[in-house]
Amino acid sequence: MTTTPNILRVTVQRGTAAALRQETFDVPAYENQTVLDVVTWIQQMADPTLSYRFACRVGMCGSCAMMVNGVPRWTCRTHVKKVAADGELDIGPLRNLPVIKDLVADMDPFFDKWVAAEARHHPSAERDDDFDPVTAQDPARAEADLGIECINCGICYAACDTVAGNPDYLGPAALQRAWTLLNDSRDADRDGILAAVSGKGGCHNCHSMGSCAQYCPNDLNPMRAIAGLKRETVRAAWGGKRDA
Amino acid sequence: MLDLRLYMAQRLSALVMVPFVLGHIAVMIYAIQGGLSTAEILGRTQGSLLWFLFYGTFVIAVSVHAAIGLRVIAHEWGGLRGRVLDGLMWGIGACLFYVGILAVFAVALP
Ligand code: HEM
Ligand code: SF4
Ligand code: SF4
Ligand code: FES
After folding, report:
1. How far does the centroid of ligand 2 lie from the alpha carbon of residue A235, in Å?
2. pTM score of the predicted model
3. With b meaning 16 or more CB within 10 Å and e meaning fewer, what string describes A77-86?
4. How remote is the CA of residue B97 from the centroid of ligand 2, in Å?
5. So what's the pLDDT on residue B30?
């Protein structure tokens, strides 16, 4: 069964921060087609100077996130059929991040904030130590497991209105990873993490509106993680007992 | 622009306000149903340490809470930061406290 392809009207944000412009392309529509397919078609068939990022094409690497009709999406797993409004697509670089060129956003601020949130492993054991058993039933482990499927795509960060209004805010992904490590028995710097998420840009800025959880392509819930951080930082400040 | 201390001050003041809001509404309904006049109400509140503490604490909580809340909005929507932001927060808090405490004096001082 072959159908004559219809045409998609695709508007793409082009250029660098100094000179942004919108360009429109007519792209053949297929029965089965992702937004990434559309962007690739434009680059291969219409304009080879179009810059964009992707790697895995299967929702693993987190590099293909873009704004699609105003919503942050992982483009390799987003079907055009589901998001095109009357055959029209509006594609741009991820929100809340500087533009490098065309659809390529500068991810540096995003990852700098992971470091600022101490969302990195703090080793607790030496080479010769026995490793910590990971027990899925342990409540802290179960809490940590909720966040480990993050693919660092930056979609939650683009969706977060608090990031938009407050550029210092560490954002949902970095804070969620900080929470994951806080609950990981193999991480050694509980106090360092709690201090890092308690500053001016810390977890207490979150308004719990939940855009991060709504748009995370892996159905993670950074808002829940941030609520956990708020709870633990307050508990620690009261000098309450901790289980660490 | 909220660190842990401001966050705790805002949540604690909100916690403190819950019973006060409910108490305030309950008292208003009660006073109106009984058909009390202004003079009769003032007759009961003026010189009462209890009412002074009730509304005095309420005013402190509102000043703290609203000042921090408006600070967040001024930063996220108005782009204010640094000393201007701190100044605004303290200014709002001071104004609210001043207006509020004058009212408390009028109602509860003998
Ligand atoms: C029992 C009464 C109240 C409770 C329980 C309460 C609770 C809260 C909470 C939990 C927040 C934080 C929201 C967030 O971080 O997203 C908040 C924010 C705020 N509150 Fe209240 N509040 C109360 C009364 C008031 C009053 C009387 C005022 C004004 C005089 C006020 C003004 C604000 C403002 C301006 C914000 C900032 C909004 C924001 O941060 O998103 N609140 N309140
Ligand atoms: S819940 Fe918090 S982190 Fe998530 S989008 Fe809202 S403000 Fe941002
Ligand atoms: S939490 Fe979800 S949306 Fe945010 S970076 Fe991780 S995978 Fe992407
Ligand atoms: S290309 Fe890897 S997640 Fe889309």
Report:
1. 21
2. 0.90
3. ebebeebbee
4. 32
5. 87
Shortest CA gap A237–chain B (Å): 9
Q: Which two tokens stand for residue A158?
A: 């683009």
Record: contact A200-B3, CB cut-off 8 A: yes
Q: What is the C-alpha separation between A127 and A100, in angstroms, rounded?
A: 41
- Measured CA to CA, the distance from residue A27 to residue A39 in angstroms comes to 9
- Alpha carbons B44 and B48: distance in angstroms, whole number: 7
Q: pLDDT confidence of B36, banded at 50, 70, 90? A: confident
Question: Which chain B residue has the Cα nearest residue A162?
Answer: B76
Nearest chain A Cα distance for residue B12, angstroms: 11
The verdict on domain B4-108 having CATH code 1.10.10 is no
Ranges of chain A whose pLDDT falls below 50: 1, 243-244
Domains present along chain A, CATH in parentheses: 7-105 (3.10.20.30), 108-238 (1.10.1060.10)
Spatial distance between the Cα atoms of A91 and A140, rounded to a whole number of angstroms: 40
Minimum-distance ligand to the CA of A161? 2
* pLDDT computed for residue A244 by the predictor: 44
Render pLDDT for B9-19 as a digit per residue (tens, 0 to 9). 999 999 999 99
